[in-house]
Specification:
Chain lengths: ~230, ~230
C-alpha cells in the first residue's frame, strides 16, 4: 500500500524547485496545500497540478503578516502556528515578463515562514529563498533560536563560471553565502543561535564535505543541511 | 559540470508520467522535444514547462502516419527514423472534460512509435500506453522483432482492490496484462519475436521477481523491463 507521511505542504514560492514536488505526491491521499493567492494562481494556471486532486488535496489561502494555525486535509489542526511574510525575492523564472520592472515580481512571490509551537515557546524561521537582507529582516531574525536560510550559491556568479547556467544568483532571487553582501556577513552579529543553510545548488562548493568553503561557513557558525536532518527546539 | 546524455525526447502522451520528466531535464543544455500538436498544446498551456528553455530545447511537431528523421537541437539527424501513429488511449487525466464523450480524448492523445534503423532493417515498436488491441494494430505488430508494450496493470481493477486509487486500468487508458481482453492474450499468435512490458504500475504483481504473475508472463514469452535494460536489434 502506497503511503506518504506528508499531511500538508506550505509553498513559499512558485518556482519549479518549490512546486514540482507536488507532482510526486499525487497519489490519492489527503494533503492540505497552503500558499499565497499569487502562488495558488500559478497552480490554477497550470492544469498539470490537477494531478494533485483538489478533492483530496484542498488548496488553502495563506495570509501574510499574521499567525494562522495549519490543519490537515480533514481539518485537524497541527500543534504549531505559522506566520508568513514577504522577503526580497523574485517571480518564478518561468513566469518572468521581460517587459515588466523587476521581471514582474510582486510581494507574494517569495515568502519566509516563522513556525512557532502552540504549546511552548519554541520557534524557527524557514527562508529557502531570499535575495537581500534589509534592516527590518535582520531585526526580525535577531536572536532567533534557529533559522534555515537560502544557501543557493557560494558566490553570485558561480553558475556562469561553472558553465552550468547564464544567470547570477541575484538574478535568480538568491543572495550568495560569501562576500560582503552575502548571507554569512549579513548574519554576523545577529546572535541567531543555530544557522542552517538549505536550498543549496549543486554548483555550491559548500556542499562538499571537505571543501574550504564549507570549512569557512562552519567557522562562522553555520551548518549545511542534509537529507534526514532533524531539529529539536 | 552537470550533463545529461539525452539529446532528444519524443513524447507519446501528455499524462504526468510522460511529461514530468522534462522538469528534471531543465538545466541549460540542448534538447529536441518532439510531440504531436495536441501534446505541444499542453506544454504551451502549462507555463511550468518553460523551465525547459525553448531557446535551448526547441519544440518540434511530430507528424503521424509517415516516417520522419529526428535530429538533435543543433539539427544533426539521428541514424534512425520514427513513425508515430495513434493508438487507443485517453486524454491526460488532469485534462479530462467530464462533460465530453470519452472524457475529451482525441486521436493524438496517445501515440505509438515505430523506430527503424536508417542503415539496416532493424526496427522496434514503443507503445507505453494502449487501451485496446484492434485488428489493425495486431496486424501491424505481427512478426515484429521487438515490441515494448504498456504493462500498467495485471488486472483491470487492481488499484481499486489495493486501495491505492479509484480508477480501473481501462479508465486510465491501459489494457491489463492478464485475462481474455488482456495484452498477453492479444499478443498470443502474433509471432512477435521479443515482447517486453514497460510502464508498469507499482500495484502490478508482475513487478515482483518471485510472483506467480511474473512467472505466468514469462511463460507466455514476455520480459519485464528494468532500469538500464539495453536492446540489440
Amino acid at each position: 500500500m502506497r503511503h506518504s507521511p506528508i499531511a500538508a505542504a506550505v509553498l513559499t514560492n512558485a518556482d519549479i524547485d518549490h512546486v514540482a514536488g507536488l507532482l510526486t505526491l499525487r497519489e490519492s491521499q489527503p494533503l492540505a496545500v497552503y500558499a499565497t493567492d499569487r502562488v495558488h494562481g500559478v497552480l490554477e494556471a497550470n492544469a498539470v497540478f490537477r494531478v494533485v486532486n483538489p478533492d483530496l488535496a484542498p488548496r488553502r489561502a495563506m495570509a501574510l503578516d499574521r499567525p494562522w494555525v495549519p490543519a490537515d486535509a480533514a481539518g485537524t489542526p497541527f500543534p504549531f502556528e505559522i506566520e508568513a511574510f514577504a522577503v526580497p525575492g523574485k517571480v518564478a523564472l518561468y513566469l518572468e515578463d521581460p517587459s515588466a520592472a523587476g521581471f514582474g515580481s510582486v510581494a507574494e512571490d517569495t515568502v519566509a515562514l516563522r513556525i512557532r509551537d502552540r504549546n511552548g515557546d519554541g520557534e524557527f524561521f524557514y527562508i529557502p529563498g531570499c535575495s537581500a537582507m534589509p534592516g527590518w529582516l535582520a531585526d526580525r531574525l535577531r536572536a532567533a533560536p534557529l533559522v534555515l536560510f537560502d544557501g543557493t550559491t557560494w558566490t553570485d556568479d558561480e553558475m556562469i563560471r561553472a558553465g552550468t547556467g547564464s544567470k547570477t544568483g541575484q538574478r535568480m532571487g538568491h543572495m550568495a553565502m560569501s562576500g560582503p553582501d552575502g548571507s554569512i556577513a549579513a548574519f554576523a552579529g545577529l546572535g541567531v543561535r543555530r544557522k542552517v543553510f538549505v536550498h543549496i545548488n549543486n554548483t555550491n562548493p559548500a556542499l562538499l564535505d571537505d571543501s574550504p568553503e564549507r570549512a569557512a561557513a562552519i567557522a562562522e557558525g553555520w551548518e549545511i543541511a542534509h537529507d534526514g536532518m532533524e531539529f529539536t527546539l
